[in-house]
Design goal:
about 150 residues; alpha+beta; 8 strands; YobU-like_regulator; GyrI-like; GyrI-like domain-containing protein; AraC_E-bd
């Protein structure tokens, strides 16, 4: 598993939001189905075949979004949100494996960050990026997605 620091440009996204505690994490895959069904409602989508899942984790709960990248945010469909994610430095890697192994991937990233002196920026959103080319694998439970954890700039 390769881990590196990258700079990601500003992103504009529109999608659905969910807030819950960690015991409800099994609800997240269904959010992708809801978003897939509603993609046609999102205006000004980019040509990128991706879904971007920004999230903000806190001690007892987290907020998770499933969004599509857009060129500009004009009209946000009912029940959706639209926002801009500012340009930011992230620690990046790709998770490849079962859903049960995702936590291990995150633990490896945290260990790498500690080893190399990076501190997570808890004020910024973390990102999971799901590329359309992996849609069938992901649906089958063989997850392939990119993880971006925001770090403080040094």
């Amino acid at each position: 598993m390769e881990v590196k620091v990258v700079e990601k440009e500003e992103l504009k996204v529109v999608g659905i939001a969910w807030n819950g505690n960690y015991s409800e994490i099994k609800k997240i895959p269904s959010l992708f189905n809801v978003m897939e069904d509603r993609l046609c409602e999102v205006q000004n989508k980019t040509n990128e075949p991706v879904l971007i899942a920004p999230f903000h984790s806190r001690e007892t709960e987290f907020t998770y979004f499933v969004t599509a990248p857009v060129e500009e945010i004009k009209e946000v469909p009912d029940g959706m949100v639209g926002f801009t994610i500012p340009r930011k430095n992230y620690v990046f890697t790709t998770h490849k494996g079962k859903a049960e192994e995702v936590e291990n991937t995150y633990q490896k990233i945290f260990a790498w960050m500690k080893d190399y002196g990076y501190e997570q920026d808890h004020q910024a959103l973390s990102l999971e990026v799901y590329n359309g080319e992996h849609k069938e694998n992901n649906a089958a439970g063989n997850l392939i997605f990119d993880i971006y954890l925001p770090v403080r700039k040094y």
